[in-house]
Amino acid sequence: MAIQPLLKSLQRRSLHHSLGERSPLPNSSHSEEVLPNCSHQMKERRDRFAWDNILNLVEGAFLFGTNMVNAGNMNGSGNLMDFLDEPFPDVGTYEDFHTIDWLREKSRDTDRHRKITNKSKESIWEFIKSLLDAWSGWVVMLLIGLLAGTLAGVIDLAVDWMTDLKEGVCLSAFWYSHEQCCWTSNEATFEDRDKCPQWQKWSELLVNKSEGASAYILNYFLYILWALLFAFLAVSLVRVFAPYACGSGIPEIKTILSGFIIRGYLGKWTLLIKTVTLVLVVSSGLSLGKEGPLVHVACCCGNFFSSLFSKYSKNEGKRREVLSAAAAAGVSVAFGAPIGGVLFSLEEVSYYFPLKTLWRSFFAALVAAFTLRSINPFGNSRLVLFYVEYHTPWYMAELFPFILLGVFGGLWGTLFIRCNIAWCRRRKTTRLGKYPVLEVIAVTAITAIIAYPNPYTRRSTSELISELFNDCGALESSQLCDYINDPNMTRPVDDIPDRPAGIGVYMAMWQLALALVFKIIITIFTFGMKIPSGLFIPSMAVGAIAGRIVGIGVEQLAYHHHDWIIFRNWCRPGADCVTPGLYAMVGAAACLGGVTRMTVSLVVIMFELTGGLEYIVPLMAAAVTSKWVADAFGKEGIYEAHIHLNGYPFLDVKDEFTHRTLATDVMRPRRGEAPLSVLTQDSMTVEDVETLIKETDYNGFPVVVSKDSERLIGFAQRRELILAIKNARQRQDGVVSNSVIYFTEEPPEVPANSPHPLKLRRILNLSPFTVTDHTPMETVVDIFRKLGLRQCLVTRSGRLLGIITKKDVLRHMAQMANQDPESIMFN
Amino acid sequence: MAIQPLLKSLQRRSLHHSLGERSPLPNSSHSEEVLPNCSHQMKERRDRFAWDNILNLVEGAFLFGTNMVNAGNMNGSGNLMDFLDEPFPDVGTYEDFHTIDWLREKSRDTDRHRKITNKSKESIWEFIKSLLDAWSGWVVMLLIGLLAGTLAGVIDLAVDWMTDLKEGVCLSAFWYSHEQCCWTSNEATFEDRDKCPQWQKWSELLVNKSEGASAYILNYFLYILWALLFAFLAVSLVRVFAPYACGSGIPEIKTILSGFIIRGYLGKWTLLIKTVTLVLVVSSGLSLGKEGPLVHVACCCGNFFSSLFSKYSKNEGKRREVLSAAAAAGVSVAFGAPIGGVLFSLEEVSYYFPLKTLWRSFFAALVAAFTLRSINPFGNSRLVLFYVEYHTPWYMAELFPFILLGVFGGLWGTLFIRCNIAWCRRRKTTRLGKYPVLEVIAVTAITAIIAYPNPYTRRSTSELISELFNDCGALESSQLCDYINDPNMTRPVDDIPDRPAGIGVYMAMWQLALALVFKIIITIFTFGMKIPSGLFIPSMAVGAIAGRIVGIGVEQLAYHHHDWIIFRNWCRPGADCVTPGLYAMVGAAACLGGVTRMTVSLVVIMFELTGGLEYIVPLMAAAVTSKWVADAFGKEGIYEAHIHLNGYPFLDVKDEFTHRTLATDVMRPRRGEAPLSVLTQDSMTVEDVETLIKETDYNGFPVVVSKDSERLIGFAQRRELILAIKNARQRQDGVVSNSVIYFTEEPPEVPANSPHPLKLRRILNLSPFTVTDHTPMETVVDIFRKLGLRQCLVTRSGRLLGIITKKDVLRHMAQMANQDPESIMFN
C-alpha cells in the first residue's frame, strides 16, 4: 500500500515516455502556472516526489502490520478474475487536479461490499474480516477524533506558552505559560493572580527593570523580535516542506469534498507542517485564528487514517465521507461545539453527506471534543473556547441594536471579501507574489509594532474575545469593568445593577475603537499570505469589539436616560438591564456570518458557547440580517470567493441556476466546431485510436455503432484506453498497430491474415449518462450536482450530438453570471 | 384559489364521464380496499367532497384579500401565451395517490421565478410584488411557528386540565387543573402543594368522603367513566369528520414528503379534528403520546399556510419544503428542542432537504418554541418538556449498565415493531378492523381498570417520565426518593451522598416493575387504533422505568458494596456516585432509538433536555447499542414498517441497494410480455390515441419516431394527453377522430381532404430521463432517489427498449429483499 505511490509514479513516467513525452494531463500547463494562491511551489513539490517516496518506503515497513487485512482483500479480488480480465495497475484511479466520478465510485464500493458479503459466508475467518470491514468506519472515526483532539490540545498549549514567551519567561519552569507559572506559584494571590515572582518579563530578566521607559522599549523590541522570528520560521517551513499548508484550507477542502483531486493537500507532511506553523503564526500575534486551519489539520488526520483501510483508501468517494466527518471533528475541537461542528460540515463544507455520515461525524466530533477536554488546555475543564454565562434576559427593544450589529457584520463581510480578493488577485498577478517571505515579515512587523502599545491588541485575539464576551461580575478586574460602584451596595452578587462607567471604561472604549480600525485593515492583508491563517477569530474579534462598544453605549444611555420612552418600559433605575457582553457576542456572530455566510451552524456554535436557548433569538436576528445585507452586495462568501479566484471546479449546491438555456447551448462541439471525436465499436485500429489520443486531450471518448449512424454504445475513459492498449501491446501476442479494436461482444469479421483484433469491451462504460438536447440546463446542473457526474452525453432521438463536461457546466454558469468563463481552470 | 377545488372536481367528473366511466386512477380499486390502517373511510370522504367544497366556497370569500397577489400572478402568466399555447385547467397537477415528479416541479418553480424576476424590472409595483414573493417563504415559516406553538400550548393546557378532571375538579374555577388550582390557592403550603381545599376529588364533591373504600371505588369508577367518555368522543370525531386524523401521522408524512399525494391528509379538517381528539385521547389515559401527532398537526398548519401563497400552493415540490420545516416545528414544540427538531426533520422525516430549508426550518422551529414558551403551559418558564439537572458526573464503569439499557432498548424496539405490525396486519385483514369504536372502548377500559390502582400508571405518562428523570434532591417528596437519611447530615444540599433505600423505594420498584409490564403490553395494542396516537412518550416511559429500576439497583449495589472491585475506584462511601435519574434518561433514549431508529436527532433532543454535553456519551452509547441490536433483527423502524404495511411507494434514502441486477432485469415489458405501448410522432390519429388510452392504464406513453425505428423523441403524460385531446375537440375546429396527432415541429404531409391535424408538441416532455439497459440497478435506484423521478425510459444504442417506474423499482427492491412485491400498491 504505502509502496504503491512510488510504483505508480514510476509507471506514470514510463507511460508519458511511451506517448512521446506528452503529458496526459489535459491542463497540465495550468497546474504549474496558476495554482492556488498559496501553491506556487507545485513544481518544487514534484521534484521532491522521490524524497516523499523514500519516506513512504520507510513508513511502509511500519504500516505493514496494519495492512494485513488490506493485502488479503487485494489478493482475494485478484483471484476472482481470469487472465484477460485482470485489472491493469492504476485502473480506477484519477489524475491529479481532476474530478472524480461519484456514481462510479459508489458502484465500485457496492461491488466491493458485495464481494465481501459473499465471501463472508465461506468461512469464519472471512466472516470476521467482513465484520472488521463493517466496523472500520467507526474505528476510523474514533482514531480521527482522538488525533484531532490531541493535536488541538497540543496546539492550544503550545500557543499559550509561545504567546507568553514574547513577553517573558517562567523561571521555575520555562515551558510554563504565564498563567500556569503563577498558578503553580504559592506567592500569587487571587486578586493579583497575574503577578508572581517566578514570571519575569524580559526586561526584568535581562536588565532587572520592570518599569520605566527603557524597560518598556526593551520589552517592545523583544516582542517584535519574537514575532518576526516565529513568522519567519513559519513561512520558511511552509515554503520548504509543505506549500499546501498555507491558508485556511477550507476553500480547498470544499473543492476536494466536492470530488476534486489535489494530491498531497491532505498529506502527512501537510499535517505535520501545518500543525507546527499554526502554533508559530498564532503565537506571532498576527491577525489570524487557528479555527480554519484546525479543520484542515483534522481533514489531514482523516486522510491519514482512511489510507490505513482499503475500504477508504481505494475509493475516492468513501474517502470523502471520512473527510466530511473529519471536518466536523475539526470545528468541534476549534470551538468545543460538536453539534455545531457537524452542522458546519453539513452546511458549509460537505458535498455528499449521507445520513450514515451524519451519525459518524457526530461520533468523531464528540470523541474529538472529549479528547480535547481530557487534555484540558484551558485549565478550566470547559469544553468550549469562550464560555460565558449571562444573568440578565434580553429585552425586545434591544433587537434594534442587535439588528444594527447585523447590518455592520454584513457590511464588514462584504468589504472584507472585496478588499481581500482584490489584494489576493494583485498578489497572484503582480510581482508581489514572488516575495512571500518578505510579505509575511513585513506584515508581522507592522502588526507587532502597532499592536504592542494597545493592551487590547497586544494579547492574543482569543483572550481579547473572551474578555469582550464576559459579563462584568463582582470579581472582574478588567479595565472594561471599571464602573463607579454605588457605595451603598457591597454584596458581591452576580446581578449587579447598571452603573455609570468609570474612567477605565472610557479609556477602554478609545483603545477598542483603535483596535477595531487596526484589526479591520490588517486582516485584509493577513488572510491569504503563505502561512496557515484562519478567519474565524479575526472576524469574531472585529464583531466583538464593535458589539462591546455598542453594548456599553446602550448601557450608559439606558443608565443616564431611564425616562426615555424606549427605556422606560424595561429598564428601571437600579436594574441590571443591559449586558454589554451579549452585544459583543451578537456582533461576533454577525461579522462571522457576514464573512462566511454560515447560518444554522453559526447560531448553533454560538448556542453551544452560551449553553442556553435564551440568547438564540438575538444571535439569529443578527445572523439573518448580516447574511441578507451581505448577500445584497454579492452572494459569495469568502470561501466561495477564494474557490473562484483559484479556478477550482466547484459546483456549489447553494447557487440556483435560473436561466433558460438548454443542453444544446452548452454542449461541445458548438456549431461550426470540428465534430465530436468518437470511437466506433468495431472499425478502428489500434493506430487510429492512438492517433486520436495523441491529437486530442479529452478525458474520454464516446463509442458509437458507426460514424454514420452515430448511435451511442458507451463511453471509454482516455486513461483506461491508454493503459489497456499499452498492456495489450506488451502482454497479448498479435496485437500490433493494425489490429482492429472492438467493443462489441463478438469480434468483427476481419479479412484473413489481418492481425489479431483487440477486445476492449471491459473498459467500456456501458451505461454512460445521457440527456436530450432539449433538456433545460437547470436540470442538467441539478443532475451534475446530485449525481456528481464528470460528463454527460447529449443525444437527440437516439443519435449522439455532443458532450457536456463539468467544466462546460461551470463555464456556462460563469458566463450566465457575467463572469469570465476562463476562470474555471481544471477539469 | 379556494374555489378551484370545486371546479376541479366537477371537471374531473365530467372527464371521467367522457371516457366512459373508467376511472383514470390506475389502481383506484386499491384505494378503496386497502388504504392505510386508519383510512378505511376513504369512500366516505369522497362522498363528503361536495360538503368540503361548500366550505371551501365560504372560505373563498374570507381568503379573497390574501389572494390578491396570487391572482395577479395567475393573470400575468396567462397573458404571456397566445391562444393555442394557453394552458388547460388542471395541467401540472397530480391525481390523488400518485407520485409527483420532482424534476418537473423544480423546473416549473424556476420558470415562475424567472417570470417574476423579469417582470420585476418593469415597474415598482412588480418589484414590490417580487420582493413579497421572495419573502413569502419566511412569512409562511413565521405563521407556521406561531400557529404550531399556539396549538401545542393549547393542547398542553387542555390535556392538563382534562387529565385532572378524571380525578376531581377545582371549585374556585372549574377550568383550572389540579396544580393551577392549588397554585392560586393561598392555603396550600410548599410541602403540601398538591393539597388545597379548592381542589376536590369526585368522591369529596359527590359523597363528601375523601378516604375509605367507598370513596376509592367511586373515584375509580368515575376515572374509568371519564376515560371511556373521552376515548369514545375521540374515536367518533375521527370516524365522522376526519378519518385521516388517526395514528401518529409520521409514516404518511414521510411518504408525502417523499413526493406522494394524499389529498386531505394535511387538510383543515384533519388539523381541527386531530387537535381536538389528541387532547381527548391523551387525557383518557391511554398509553400514547402527543409528540408524533403534534408533527402531523404542525404539517397541517404548514399545508394550510402554504395554500395561501401561490408559490407553494401551486407547486407540490415547494410545498414539501414548507412541510419539512413544519415537521421540525412540530418536534420543536413537542419536546422544546428546536435544534433536535430540525435534525429530526432532516434525519427521519424529510426527503428533499436543501440548505435553504435547513435555515428556514430552524427559524420555524425557534418561533414555535418561543411561542410555546410565552404561553408557558407548564408554568415554569421552561421550554423543554422534561427539564433535568444532575449534579454528579458519570463514571466509566457505568457505561456497562448504560450499554445493557441500550440492549434492552433494542430488544424492546424489535419486539414492539414485530408485535405491533402483526396486530395491525390482523386488524386490516380480519373482522377486527370493522369495529374500530369498540376496539378503542375496550382498550381504554382495560387501560383505565389496570392503570388506576398503580400510582405510576394512574398519572399522565409525561409526569411519570418527568419524575423518573429527576434526581432526588433534598426537597423531593416523591416515593422514589424515600431514602434512609443519615441523621448526622442536615443541610439540604444538592450533592446528597448515596444512601440506603427506604421502604418507599422498594415499594416503588415493585410498582414500577408492574407498570413496565403493563406499558409494554398495552402499547402494542394501542398504537395503530383509529385515534391519534404517538409513540414517543410510551417508548420513553418503558425505557425510563427500566432505566430507573436499573439505576436504583446499581446505586444500592454501590452503596452496600463499596469494596467491590468495580466500585472501589470511583465510589467511595459518602459520595454521591450514582444518579438513578440519568439511568432513566439513558433507558428512555435507548427505547426510543430502538423503536424509531433515530440517532443524531435523538441524542440532540436528549441533549437539549439536559442542556449539558456532559451526559451525551452515555446517551450516545445507549442509542448506538440500541440501534445496532435492533438492526440485527431487522432494519426497519416502526415508521418504515407501517409504510410497508400500508403499501406506500416510499423509496427510503437509508436503504442500500447492493444487488447486481441491471436495468434490463427490471424494465417493463419483460421478455414475453406485449410490447411497450408507444405513440409515434406523426402517424397516429386521435382515435388511435384514445383507444390506446382506453385500453391501458399507464400514466404516460413514450413517443418514438416510428414503430420500426423506435428512436425516442419524448414522453407524454396520460393525464395531459386526455386533457389536451378533450380541449382540442371542444375548441379547435376540424379536429375529429381521424385527425392525425403530430408531435413534430412541422405538421406531417397528409393527403388532401383529410381532416385538420392536431399538434401536441406542447404537452410532450422533450427531455425524458433515459438509462441504458446495462445500467446497474443500484445506479437506477440512486437516480430515482436523488432526482425524484416518476419513471425512466430504458434504451439500447438509441433504441427504446422499455420503461421503469418508481413502482417497478420498489417492487424489484422488495423482491430482492425476499418480500412480497405486490405489497407496493400505489404509483
Explain this structure:
- The structure is a homodimer of 827-residue chains.
- Chain A is mostly helical.
- The first copy, chain A, folds into four domains: 1-64, no CATH class; 139-375, Orthogonal Bundle (Clc chloride channel); 396-484 and 496-641, Clc chloride channel, CATH 1.10.3080.10; 663-823, CBS-domain.
- The first copy, chain A, is built from 33 helices and twelve strands.
- In chain A, strand 5 (700-704) and strand 6 form a beta hairpin.
- The longest helix of chain A is centred in the first third of the chain and has 42 residues, at 124-165.
- Chain A is elongated.
- Chains A and B meet through helix 6, helix 16, helix 17, helix 26 and helix 27 of A and helix 6, helix 16, helix 17, helix 26 and helix 27 of B.
Break the fold down into its secondary structure elements and pairings.
2 copies of one chain form a homodimer.
Chain A: H1 4-18, H2 28-33, H3 42-47, H4 49-63, H5 68-79, H6 102-120, H7 124-165, E1 168-170, H8 178-184, E2 199-201, H9 202-207, H10 213-241, H11 250-257, H12 268-283, H13 291-306, H14 310-313, H15 316-335, H16 338-349, H17 355-375, H18 399-429, H19 436-451, H20 455-458, H21 461-469, H22 503-526, H23 536-560, H24 565-568, H25 580-596, H26 600-610, H27 616-633, H28 638-646, H29 663-666, E3 679-680, E4 684-685, H30 686-695, E5 700-704, E6 712-717, H31 718-731, E7 740-742, E8 758-759, E9 764-765, E10 770-772, H32 777-787, E11 791-796, E12 799-805, H33 806-816
Parallel strand pairs in A: 3-5, 7-8, 10-11
Antiparallel strand pairs in A: 1-2, 4-7, 5-6, 6-9, 11-12
Helix pairs in contact in A: 6-7, 7-12, 7-13, 7-15, 7-17, 10-12, 10-19, 11-28, 12-13, 13-15, 15-16, 15-17, 16-17, 16-26, 18-22, 18-23, 18-25, 18-27, 18-28, 19-22, 21-23, 21-25, 22-23, 23-25, 25-27, 26-27
